[in-house]
Design brief:
Blueprint lengths: L2 E9 L3 H13 L2 H5 L1 E4 L38 H7 L3 H7 L6 H14 L4 E3 L4 E8 L7 E8 L4 E9 L19 E3 L3 H4 L10 E5 L3 H13 L4 E5 L12 H4 L6 H7 L2 H15 L5 H17 L4 E4 L2 E9 L2 E8 L5 E6 L1 E4 L9 H9 L22 E4 L4 H4 L9 H15 L14
Parallel strand pairs: 1-2, 1-6, 2-3, 6-15, 7-14, 8-9, 8-14, 9-10
Antiparallel strand pairs: 4-5, 5-6, 11-12, 12-13
Bound molecules: flavin-adenine dinucleotide.
Length: 433
């Protein structure tokens, strides 16, 4: 069985841990960078794999890349990527601050390829993390044992989890067979599985950007399909894009949010909700509305909006997916038949399963992180675990976005450098080795 020992293990090669790797290379001693391993479950780095349609764009400026806000002179900047790949003049000429998602994805892959010291290993899905007790009877833990789907193990003193969030599949829809339902995290990859002759009635659940992008893509790809968007809200809405509230996405705002009283944090998250959730980009909104207008004009209506409903139940009957919709206005229940259901239902709000399992193994009842994203662990632990991208409740709405990555990575590296001075406790679990 394959076994490795590293000082820093980062789970997930998404933007969060790539920013971390860049920060380790630029800010930490070379021996730590050389002893850093990033593990990625997929065979390559792809940003938003499930929603990587060629026309989709990032919603934040290209200057909010993995590093520029921390070190504008870095070799790992988006601008240097464009320069190195011979596309800088083309990008400048486009005159656009928000790159295509594809370009961001290419940039991330380029950074992953270009890293000098930190290593990335692909095709390694972490399935469990457990503390390696010293066996001295004092509860001491100085390292983690991380297990992978292929049975291999890595022992690491420091762990950073940047594995994204778990997809949310509403309980009412949990029983719909996999070949009839696609969550947005898999959409671009699995859309090709759909048979245009069979996917004639498509339901898209959700009223935000991902749902709208799937609706639009399905409408364009399947000319014979009728596409219904099913949502709880009163109708589609634009993202809130005020430059005033956008200032709250500055990395410098994290301190203010973190120090805020509970009521103020709640107000900030509530009032900023539509800057990132439950909204559509103005372009997408306009595109859909115009399409529906033209369809009505020409008598070829294929898009339908069903608003203010909850999906109360789903079952299979005569080869159809039958959704029971509960009308929030009247309380009436109606049944509707579809061939395929697309889920734009977002992500689970709670901590990802991998973090919850780690907490349970460490005897931690309530998962929390400090200002430096370090997870609260028993005092007897010198092993550390930092969590990236899942701390919206304590670090603000920008936590899951690119906006704060560069600075957050710096803060985590600074915290790691402080903690690596503590004496090392070696675990007793022989099975780890
Ligand atoms: C459709 C969509 C569009 C978005 N657009 C924007 C945008 O325009 N601007 C913006 O700032 N943010 C956007 N976001 C938010 C997005 O969360 C961040 O941009 C960013 O991707 C977060 O990076 P991350 O590294 O924390 O997580 P992720 O990007 O989710 O990366 C996590 C990585 O971990 C890997 N992984 C997961 N589990 C394991 C495991 N068990 N073992 C090994 N590897 C694992 C995954 O394969 C993945 O590569 C968007 C999100 C979505 C869903």
């Amino acid at each position: 069985m394959r076994y490795q020992e590293v000082e820093l293990l980062a789970i997930g090669a998404g933007p969060s841990n790539l920013a971390l790797a860049v920060a380790v290379e630029e800010l930490a001693p070379a021996e730590l960078a050389r002893n850093t391993l990033i593990v990625e479950q997929r065979d390559d780095v792809v940003w938003q794999r499930g929603m990587l349609m060629p026309w989709t764009q990032s919603q934040v400026s290209f200057l909010k890349d993995l590093v520029t806000l921390r070190n504008p002179r870095s070799a790992y900047s988006f601008v240097n990527f464009l320069h190195a790949t011979g596309r800088l003049d083309q990008f400048i000429n486009l005159g656009c601050f928000t790159p295509y998602r594809m370009e961001i994805s290419d940039y991330l892959r380029w950074v992953a390829r270009t890293l000098r010291d930190a290593r990335i290993e692909y095709g390694r899905r972490c399935v469990a993390v457990r503390p390696n007790h010293t066996g001295n009877g004092d509860g001491g833990v100085g390292e983690w044992i991380v297990e992978f789907a292929d049975g291999s193990r890595v022992v690491s003193r420091h762990l950073v989890i940047g594995a994204g969030r778990d997809p949310h599949i509403p309980a009412a829809l949990a029983g719909v067979p996999r070949d009839r339902m696609i969550h947005s995290t898999e959409f671009a990859v699995r859309m090709g599985e759909l048979d245009p002759d069979r996917a004639r009635r498509i339901a898209v659940i959700g009223g935000a950007q991902s749902a709208a992008e799937m609706l639009w893509t399905a409408h364009q790809a399947f000319p014979a399909a009728h596409c219904t968007m099913v949502m709880r809200s009163i109708g589609l809405n634009a993202y809130e894009i005020s430059k005033f509230t956008n200032e709250l996405f500055y990395p410098s705002f994290v301190d203010e949010f973190h120090n805020a009283l509970p009521d103020a944090r709640e107000q900030l998250l509530r009032e900023m909700h539509r800057t990132n959730y439950s909204g559509l980009s103005p372009d997408m909104l306009d595109t859909l509305y115009r399409q529906m207008y033209v369809d009505r004009l020409t008598g070829t209506e294929r898009i339908q909006m069903v608003t203010m409903v909850d999906v109360a139940d789903a079952r299979m009957e005569d080869g159809d997916v039958v959704l029971t919709l509960l009308d929030r206005k009247t309380g009436a229940r109606t049944e509707h038949r579809y061939d395929v259901v697309l889920l734009g239902t977002g992500f689970v709000k709670q901590m990802p399963g991998i973090v919850q399992d780690l907490a349970a193994a460490a005897g931690v009842d309530e998962i929390s992180v400090d200002r430096h994203y370090r997870m609260g662990l028993p005092a007897s632990y010198t092993a550390t675990c930092h969590l990236q991208g899942v701390n919206e409740a304590t670090h603000g709405i920008a936590d899951s976005l690119l906006s704060v990555l560069a600075i957050r990575a710096e803060e985590i590296v600074a915290d790691l450098l402080t903690h690596r001075r503590a004496p090392r406790l070696v675990g007793s679990a022989q099975s780890a080795r």
